[in-house]
Write a structure and sequence with these properties.
single chain, alpha+beta, 2,3-Dihydroxybiphenyl 1,2-Dioxygenase, domain 1, 8-stranded mixed beta sheet, 4 helices, globular, VOC family protein, VOC_core
Length: about 250
């Protein structure tokens, strides 16, 4: 059985503060708060949780992944922007044009996200989190489609997108030119296996699809660290390490 997308992990200098920000924006519930981080549980069909993990490293450069939040009207878009600003977000310039309909913001630790205009057809059938928009190649889109067994919903001009058969956000990759890598990715995936699944076999399958083992070739207690074909890190959790999602 293939891995499931269990969590989006976000490195944070103040995990609880950042979790409270995103809880306020998304309307998700705070599950726990400990030295190991803080978790938000989805209140919609997103299908994965968000984990905020402590780090001492400051954010440098733009993230290779960000949220695209949808809107049902211009008033709804402005409400999301106003709510985000009130919780500690700020407007930022990433090169957007004056005629662009989306609003680009950064959360309290500088993580970029967009509030999309209401007439965006690509995200028309998606929930509030319309997409996880990623910097990445066509090859990495194909990899994640096979890794998660999610169908491609877009494959054109070297841009790709996948989506779970159960719904939820799309995951998109914008194709070349790619951003230069500047170290560890601040946003990363945790993959989960069902109980009694063979973690080693799943790691071998992902490697056969184009992933690379990082560090030692041994399973660690908190999961096996891999990199996708573009070099972005992700973990395959041991079956006992993950709580099964509501899509299992």
């Amino acid at each position: 059985m293939t891995s499931q997308l269990h969590a989006l992990c976000i490195d944070a200098n103040e995990p609880l503060r950042l979790a409270r920000f995103w809880s306020g924006v998304l309307g998700w519930e705070l599950e726990d708060d400990s030295d190991e981080g803080t978790t938000l549980l989805p209140s919609d069909d997103t299908g994965f949780r968000i984990r905020f993990l402590p780090t001492q490293e400051p954010k440098t450069g733009r993230n290779r992944m960000h949220f695209d939040l949808t809107s049902t009207s211009l008033d709804d878009q402005q409400r999301t922007v106003s709510t985000s600003l009130g919780l500690g977000a700020q407007h930022i310039d990433v090169g957007q044009r004056p005629e662009d309909g989306h609003v680009v913001l950064a959360d309290p630790e500088g993580n970029e996200f967009c509030v999309i205009e209401p007439d965006n057809k690509f995200l028309a059938d998606c929930g509030f989190i319309g997409a996880l928009a990623c910097d990445g190649s066509q090859e990495v889109g194909y990899f994640w489609s096979r890794a998660l067994d999610w169908p491609l919903v877009w494959d054109q001009d070297q841009e790709t997108a996948i989506r779970s058969p159960h719904g939820g956000p799309k995951i998109t990759w914008g194709g070349p030119p790619l951003m230069p890598r500047t170290g560890r990715s601040r946003l990363r995936f945790d993959l989960a296996l069902p109980a009694r699944a063979d973690q080693r076999a799943e790691v071998d399958r992902l490697v056969s699809l184009g992933a690379t083992r990082i560090g030692t070739d041994r399973s660690e207690a908190d999961g096996v660290l891999l990199a996708d074909p573009d070099g972005h890190e992700f973990r395959v959790l041991a079956p006992a390490s993950a709580i099964e999602s509501h899509w299992c």
